Amino acid sequence: MVTIVNKKARFEYEIVEKFEAGIALEGSEVKSVRAGHVNLGDAFCFVENGELYLKNCRISAYDKATVLPPDELRSRKLLLHRREIDRLIGKSREKSLTIVPLSMYFKGRRVKTEIALARGKRSYDKKQTIKERDGTRDMQRQIADAVRSRDPR
Predict the structure, then answer these.
(1) Beta carbons of 107 and 10 less than 8 angstroms apart
(2) pTM of the complete model
(3) CA 42, CA 19: separation in Å to the nearest integer?
(4) How confident is the model at residue 27 (pLDDT cuts 50, 70, 90)?
(5) What is the spatial distance between Cα 117 and Cα 44, in angstroms, rounded to a whole number?
(6) Is the sign of the CA dihedral 95, 98, 103, 105 positive or negative?
(7) Residue 118: which of 139, 101, 136 has the closest Cα?
(8) Phi and psi (nearest 5°) for 35?
């Protein structure tokens, strides 16, 4: 199962609520997603005419496609129920939250995108996240060293 993760979004934002959305892709784009040629780093969601779109998501052209490939950075429509869209729009306007994509994956034959209502982190929150990550890494390294030292080879 191919999963493309937006690490930058999890670092830059505090996740409030997650949603699963379908995404409208053209034929060769699905094969590119299956090959993992997707970059969600600068991607964001925006509302236009009551519909939710994914912007700045780069899906590279599939090399073996016979027809003219679609634009790599085009806006792609996210497929959600009307109630979910209205809820996302309302909350993003009301509480100054933003909608960001967290990951893209296959569920059966369909490509799904996990999006989230998120609140931007302050710089001191980001520093705290880095400190926790470093502490966890050091702890894992110490555990691995202790296990290696006990290994009777």
Answers:
(1) no
(2) 0.77
(3) 19
(4) confident
(5) 11
(6) positive
(7) 101
(8) -80, -10
